[in-house]
Amino acid sequence: MRLLLGVENPAMAKAIQGPLRSQNYVVDWVRDGEETWQHLSHPDLYSLVIVDWKLPQLSGLELCLKLRQKGDFTPLLLLMPSHDMDDRIIGLDSGADDCLSEPFGLEELLARIRALLRRPRAIKSQVLQIDHISLDCHRLTLSVPNRDAQVLTAKEFQLLEYLMSCSNQVLTHDQICDRLWGLTYEPMSNVIAAKVRSLRRKFEIMGCHNSIETIRGLGYRFNVK
Predict the structure, then answer these.
(1) Which CATH architecture is the domain 2-118 placed in?
(2) For the whole prediction, is pTM greater than 0.85?
(3) Cβ atoms of residues 189 and 155 within 8 Å
């Protein structure tokens, strides 16, 4: 499942991302409220949103209100700055499905995430479709008509989803590193090239060629005819 994490503090983001990824969640980290809101413009991409009340530019509370006002009921966990009951009531009344006060334990965070994801919600399409290529954001599979779907690893999915969302645009190595690995990325690593090779093999198995183009010295581009 794909989660959106909106917190400003890099140390806090890293502390949350690691345990979530170890549980096989795909996690996108954004640093402010405006960027969080932009990510939420992709309908049905995220199974759960975790936002900090104290986000700059657009607070977590304001995000709750905007999200519900546009009719989006993606489960949302609001991280609170205190244990104040009045603040918790405000958060829930603004549209948060649950509130978690800081400081909190990671086991409690994981338990609350599992509880929110168990709640029934309307079943909506979670497929990113470009031409004949389909990327299932829930099952983490890549498919084309009349071919067996290819199962992707979490990082393969993150990379391909980013490339497909920015079709015909060149994404630099730095942009990809920041989006997929953030603070954990090692600059000398060839991990991006390895993931691209793996994705290309899966495309080739399905009879697709040249979908991901290498732009020498810059990065990669997902080509749409």
Answers:
(1) 3-Layer(aba) Sandwich (3.40)
(2) no
(3) no
